[in-house]
Design goal:
Elements lengths: L7 E2 L3 E5 L18 E7 L2 E6 L3 E6 L4 E5 L4 E8 L2 E7 L7 E11 L2 E9 L13 E6 L5 E6 L4 E5 L13 E4 L8 E9 L3 E8 L3 E7 L2 E7 L10 E4 L4 E5 L4 E5 L12 E3 L6 E8 L2 E9 L10 E9 L4 E8 L4 E4 L6 E4 L2 E5 L2 E5 L5 E6 L2 H10 L3 H9 L5 H17 L3 H9 L7 H7 L6 H12 L6 H14 L2 H11 L4 H10 L4 H8 L2
Helix pairs in contact: 1-2, 2-3, 3-4, 4-6, 6-7
Length: 518
């Protein structure tokens, strides 16, 4: 059974068909018949690449333009700052070209072509028979890596935009490894002390390389069995890479890859036993597109369906899932590996998740606001999830104390007084202390009341009445050590002043007997 079967499921997103801003009431079909082979997000826009060399740019307002980046084929896209990096071919035969486009500078309805490098000139083989298939660039624009179908990876360190040496002075940090399959993913993370971690994903393996001064100082082969080019995602800010295989989703951290005795990372059984078609990250969510058996197959064409599932790994819940009636890929030719055209794809535009359907329909998953999500959780009495959700939300702090109050009331009603008091502690400053005190004045609950009152005295929200109640609780529970420690925190002048405090707080004789040791 997949671990995500045990995760709680919610409907935290709304799926809506995107409307054409220029034709009210009609669907937006600006991407109809576009066969997306690669994509990348850059700023407030997304770039969708076709295998035949065309690139569509789509922004949040649905403004779009198209340009022919390559005459023959487009293999990979990557965005860094205002630049778009692409790999493709302008002529028949393998002759891969790296092009650097300036995304914010248009000339003749296309981005300005800033630089162009024939990769055959830098590949160790010295000829064009080995195609490049992957590219990544660090956001500092000081590090770029290119992967090839034979497993070779080349790296350049320096000013990518200005250095003339970009045309020649690359170095190889991964040799050709045909048995591992072609490079399907690359990611670069910078560490302190001028160190760089490069993740290399192939169809059969995942490796990390620690590089210092162009020298590989540590290499690790990770547990992941590799992934297709769409089944991994990387967060440069945290140095975290996530890789999806059929049975597992693997998580690795760049700063842990320096360990010479090996680093296993962690894994979760998300979408287990289902073929993964795509993995992307949107905000704090991971989104998986999987191939599954259709619930009600009516023909060979509808034997399978696709499922979109939005995971919140930190909260361990599923925020949304929906089935899509047709497969996300179709194949042409007797050899199913010859052509692989995607007719449905997930992508993100300005942190919004989009689904491009088979018929060209564009749908958007819109996350509900925090109040709407909390209402869903409150109806299910899932206050623990509500706390996690509020803590991870920008405006969640203002809701936390009220969530803890509701959670405390729920636990109190269930007779779980210990955990309830822990929740009530979190409400100090919002919930009136008398509300909690009245609930715990029963003799069997005085210990929990002490816990609350002790926490209250660690803040500025207590008064003399609360102090009196706490001291009386200590007296009835015969907690001499706790009473002494508490009184010493109020006065350090010895027993006489403590006795004066008893008089001041109208303590009964039992308290005086306890302090006197009787």
């Amino acid at each position: 059974m997949s671990v995500d079967f045990g995760w709680r499921r919610f409907n935290f997103f709304d799926k809506n068909v995107v409307q054409d801003p220029e034709k009210p009431g009609e669907k937006f079909l600006g991407l109809k018949d576009v066969c997306v082979d690669c994509w990348c997000s850059g700023g407030d826009a997304v770039y969708l690449g076709e295998s035949r060399g065309g690139v569509f740019r789509l922004c949040r307002e649905l403004d779009e333009y198209y340009w022919k980046a390559y005459q023959t084929a487009l293999t990979a896209l990557h965005a860094a700052e205002k630049y778009i990096f692409s790999i493709g071919e302008d002529e028949e035969g393998t002759n891969s070209i790296l092009k650097i486009w300036q995304g914010d500078h248009l000339e003749k309805a296309a981005p300005l072509l800033h630089r162009e490098i024939r990769l055959s000139s830098i590949h160790p083989s010295g000829h064009c028979s080995v195609a490049a298939c992957s590219v990544t660039v660090h956001s500092s624009l000081s590090s770029i890596a290119v992967g090839f179908v034979d497993g070779t990876v080349l790296h350049y360190q320096g000013d990518i935009i200005k250095d003339k040496a970009l045309f020649s002075r690359w170095y190889r940090f991964r040799e050709a490894s045909p048995s591992d399959g072609p490079v399907t993913g690359l990611a670069l993370a910078k560490l302190p002390a001028e160190r760089l971690v490069a993740f290399v994903v192939t169809t059969k393996a995942v490796h990390s390389y620690v590089i210092e001064n162009k020298v590989v100082t540590n290499t690790l082969k990770h547990d992941s069995p590799g992934a297709p080019k769409d089944c991994w995602t990387f967060d440069e800010r945290t140095g975290s890479i996530v890789i999806a295989s059929r049975d597992m989703v693997f998580f690795y951290e760049a700063d842990q890859c320096t360990e010479t005795d090996g680093y296993r990372g962690r894994c979760l059984q998300l979408g287990r036993s289902h073929e993964k078609l795509q993995l992307i990250a949107v905000g704090e969510h991971l989104v998986l597109l999987t191939k599954q058996q259709a619930l009600i197959p009516s023909s060979d064409e509808t034997k399978f369906m696709s499922m979109v599932t939005v995971y919140n790994v930190k909260g361990q819940y599923i925020g949304f899932s929906c089935s899509l009636p047709s497969l996300c890929r179709y194949f042409i030719g007797k050899d199913l590996n010859l052509l692989d055209h995607r007719i449905m794809i997930l992508f993100a535009v300005d942190q919004s998740l989009m689904i491009l359907g088979k018929d060209g329909t564009l749908s958007e998953l819109t996350e509900k606001n925090l109040c709407a999500k909390l209402d869903i959780l409150f109806k299910k009495n899932l206050y623990d999830v509500a706390v996690i959700l509020a803590k991870s939300s920008k405006d969640g702090n203002e809701h936390l104390k009220s969530i803890h109050a509701k959670y405390g009331d729920y636990l109190y009603g269930k007779g779980d007084f210990d955990n309830a008091i822990n929740e009530y502690k979190e409400t100090i400053g919002m919930l009136e202390p008398s509300y909690v005190i009245k609930r715990y004045l029963d003799g069997s609950r005085l210990r929990q009341l002490c816990v609350y009152l002790e926490s209250l005295h660690e803040t500025t929200h207590y008064n003399l009445h609360h102090t009196t109640i706490l001291l009386n609780c200590y007296a009835q529970l015969e907690e001499r050590k706790k009473m002494m420690k508490f009184l010493e925190s109020l006065s350090t002048d010895g027993k006489t002043n403590m006795a004066n405090l008893f008089d001041r707080f109208a303590m009964h004789s039992t308290s005086l007997n306890i302090i006197g040791g009787d």
